Prior knowledge:
This protein has helices spanning 2-30, 38-54, 59-82, 88-106, 129-151, 154-164, 166-171, 176-202, 213-228, 235-258, 266-300, and strands at residues 112-114, 204-206. The protein is mostly helical. Helix 2 packs parallel to helix 4 (88-106) and helix 9 crosses helix 10. The chain starts with a helix and ends with a helix.
Amino acid sequence: MSFLNALPGAVAEGLIWGLMAIGVYISYKILDIADLTVDGSICTGACVCAVLITKGVPVPVCILLAFIAGALTGVVTGVFHTALGIPSILAGILTQLILYSVNLSILSGKSLISVYTYTDSLILHMSDNPHAVLAAGIIIAVVIVCLWLFFYTEFGLTLKSTGDNPDMSRAQGVNVNFNKVLGLAISNGIVALSGALLAQYKGSANINDGRGAIVIGLAAIFIGLSVSLKIKSNFVVSLIGVVGGGIVYYVIYNFVILLGLKTEFLKMLSAIIVVLFLAIPYLKKEYFSKKKSIKKVEEGK
């Protein structure tokens, strides 16, 4: 019964983190870049949104500015990587470190800022989980449609080709470096957008928001793709699967918490979930496929 009561909240939070996972999907799967900026950019989105709400700025404007702030963090990482020749992983880590100070400055040196008293103006909040699920679902649907329309334009296709084969794209006259910067901007903008929703849902923004976000994003991606690839998969189906992966992750997360897992083991649980969904396809291919091949050879003899 406790699990059923907690389910709407798990779905709402799973949708928000599923949106974040869409951002990770763009950098990790489309651009083929391991971007660790997300641990900082999601916090940037949350901090910008929360501070602006307390200043009386309309919530839709707060969300838009949070997206722009997140996109700028992606630009910084992209410039580090393309213009300065810093490896993408290290570029993301460096931007993440910079963002800790930036986010602290946005919060005026505080570790937390509350928007709980502004509940009536928020788009979603944990006090009304069914409404939060509906609001998050609508925003995600809009984001997916916008990404679908963009990535099937000529320019969007060149961005996808940059991740698939940068050398061939460069040979065709595509500005690969610009595409990488743009892709990282879109990716982190979406991540920051999820941070803005998260701040509203929780009623606060914390300087430590986003720690381990990349792990949750990867977990959602591998959970979602392990299911969506079994059906006729395309770009939109993959994005929907990623969001579904975020929901599954948080349902499992809440279920394990209700079983009494100590809080100090929650990060370890996140890592284990990612390990499992990374390992299962490999083990299936490595061991079960080999066994089938050996069996067919033996039957042929």
